[in-house]
Write a structure and sequence with these properties.
heterodimer, A: 314 residues, mainly alpha, 2 strands, globular, B: 114 residues, alpha+beta, 2 helices
């Protein structure tokens, strides 16, 4: 019996060590993935980056604005962190110039994870596993710099290019999308004027635009202006990409539209939905005059931008 | 008469020196831009296997004209310069009111994907 008391814990220890070694991240990306989903980076250890950037919703979530620690309400809609390798700046107002800089901000933000970065780093270095993993991968203890590098490296892997639209265009597969989606694609570039902002591999030109969601009253987020200090930027926000847009509702910087149909209806006549907005972009000064069928075609096109990985899960 | 008409159509819409797939070498950031020119004088452009533009083109001697789904439908006119035994080309703008497209196209050096 005494012999078993010694042997059993030893066997258990070996087993635990072996399983930990098996889960040990082997590179920056794997370490970043681990960190992304680990609540260790929030003050009360209740939420992780992945709490708001959920894989099932293209690394966004389903709320108008997400909840941070102690259910604190954020200020803007959680954007998808997929397809971001080409972005020149981050956050709706573009306040971060690099993905590494962006990666640390939600950790420290009191409304999000509320853990000052130096405390997060201390926590990682006090954790036996993380200490070993950072040493193996970065040949140093955890620092703010390599913490950001790891998370950013993981996020850079979240590229998608396997939608029905991609299949249609890249493989010349005319059956990949519906006729409605094909008509929608034409509308997207012409009558809908969408490509004037949503043009490029991820359907954005990375510009800041005021689409008419600022009226200085109930819609009072000044957006880019708070960063640039330029009055001309009032109400402007970064044009988001549109890949996987069907799974990232609700929409806009404040999450005020629940469906793509609502979004299209808004763009068709912004003044009707938000009268007397301030500084609306000139592209959107006149109604588009889309028919109901055209609105449906546009929506069909937007649905075709959903990567297969999300369709298979439904 | 019919044969002549068919030939005339083929002359306009058949394969040409561009028909096929072309790509740039990877940029310092690793981006590869490509374009597929089709028999019907349409094309699809892509970056890193993500399609981003579609349109139609005409190639007459060394003059390349295009319209695409950006740039408000405005056409652009370029001189196309083939080299390396017609396996590579680059474009010099002649007339393109779309500055963003002009800047992008002027930097491209594309090689045929075999």
């Amino acid at each position: 019996m005494r012999k078993w008391c010694i042997v059993l814990p030893a066997v258990l220890l070996v087993f635990i060590q072996a399983s930990l070694t098996g889960n040990a991240p082997k590179d920056k990306v794997a370490l970043g993935r681990h960190l992304f989903f680990d609540p260790i980076l929030s003050r009360d250890k209740t939420i992780s980056c992945g709490s708001c950037h959920q894989p099932a919703y293209a690394f966004a979530d389903t709320l108008a604005v997400s909840r941070g620690v102690k259910k604190r309400k954020g200020k803007r809609n959680t954007p998808s962190v997929m397809n971001i390798t080409g972005l020149p700046y981050f956050f709706w107002d573009g306040r971060s110039a690099s993905l590494e800089e962006q990666a640390l901000a939600p950790i420290a933000n009191p409304d999000e994870m509320d853990l000052p970065v130096h405390l997060a780093v201390q926590r990682l270095n006090a954790n036996k596993n993380y200490k070993a993993w950072f040493r193996d991968i970065f040949h140093s203890e955890a620092t703010a710099n390599n913490l950001a590098q790891a998370i950013a490296a993981f996020e850079r892997t979240l590229e998608t290019s396997n939608s029905a639209f991609d299949d249609w265009k890249m493989n010349n597969n005319n059956n990949a999308v519906s006729e409605a989606a094909k008509r929608g694609f034409v509308l997207f570039g012409k009558k809908g004027k969408c490509t004037q902002c949503h043009f490029g591999a991820d359907f954005t030109q990375h510009q800041f635009k005021n689409i008419g969601l600022f009226n200085g009253k109930d819609l009072n987020d000044s957006g880019r202006m708070a960063i640039s200090g330029n009055a001309a930027d009032i109400g402007k926000f970064k044009t988001p990409g549109l890949r996987n847009i069907a799974v990232t509702a609700p929409y806009m910087h404040n999450g005020m539209f629940n469906t793509l149909a609502e979004v299209i209806e808004f763009y068709n006549d912004p003044e009707k939905r938000i009268p007397h907005s301030i500084n609306r972009d000139t592209v959107l000064l006149k109604p588009l005059g889309l028919t109901n069928d055209e609105k449906k075609d546009l929506e069909a096109f937007l649905l075709s931008l959903t990567d297969q990985q999300f369709l298979q899960k439904k | 008469m019919l044969a002549a008409s068919v030939l005339a159509v083929l002359a306009v819409t058949g394969p040409d020196k561009l028909t096929g797939k072309w790509e740039t070498k990877p940029s310092p950031k690793g981006n590869v831009t490509g374009v597929v020119f089709k028999d019907d004088q349409s094309f699809d452009g892509y970056v890193n296997k993500k399609p981003f533009t579609s349109g139609n083109y005409q190639l007459q001697d060394s003059i390349f004209e295009l319209t695409d789904n950006g740039c408000n439908g405005e056409p652009g006119k370029y001189r196309i310069i083939f080299f390396s035994n017609n396996d590579s080309f680059r474009l010099q703008p002649i007339d393109d009111p779309c500055e963003e497209r002009k800047n992008g196209m002027s930097k491209l050096v594309m090689g045929r994907v075999k």
